[in-house]
Amino acid sequence: MNDNQRPTITIKLKPYLQEYLMFELRSNVASKRNLLGILIHKFLEYMPADVQPDFPKGPEYITFSVPFFEDINVRGNLWISPLNQQIFEQFVEWHFKQLFFHYMNDKVRLYRSFKKAILQFCADYQFTMNYLNYEMLKKDYYRKRARKKADKEVPLCVSGINPQYPVIYTLIN
Q: Could you say which of 27, 121, 128, 134 is the most buried, measured as most Cβ atoms within 10 Å of its Cβ?
């Protein structure tokens, strides 16, 4: 069966997340083996009778071909609820940010410049910079680094216990 004969599903996603998914998948076809197909399968539900079918169009929507699953009839009246779309978008955004932070941690050491590393990230992952901008990524990376430093700091003493209390040292030894 051709990809254009498959049933489709339309999901609301931020445009830069759409670019990210299209780069990762290399097409708009969800399969049983890629991340998108696995996630979509979990979020598909039968449409309630009181909800009218909607075929949204616009830059914030992306349409994927859905694979055929044995346990669910994808040709039926299926949809992804607005709550599930939010969860899906949050997961894709988390996945994108994890990739970005790991990339930046590696490339900042190599390039010794945030700007070069961010621009190289956009070039490697084919972002057009129409929906993403340098300042947004830089601020996000700075905030992540600040949170990471705060999490790694170990307090010098336990709050509420006097460091001169002798029982602490006898328990440690």
A: 121
Contact call for residues 13 and 60 (beta carbons, < 8 A): yes
CB 44 within 8 A of CB 74: yes
What is the per-residue pLDDT for 171?
Answer: 42
- Against a cut of 0.70, is the pTM above it? yes
Which DSSP symbol is given to 5? G
Q: Is residue 168 part of a domain?
A: no
Total domains, the chain: 1
User: pLDDT of 50-72, one tens digit each?
Assistant: 777 777 788 888 887 777 666 66
Nearest to 45 by CA among 71, 80, 11: 80
Alpha carbons 125 and 17: distance in angstroms, whole number = 12
User: Whole-angstrom distance between the N-terminal and C-terminal Cα of the chain?
Assistant: 71
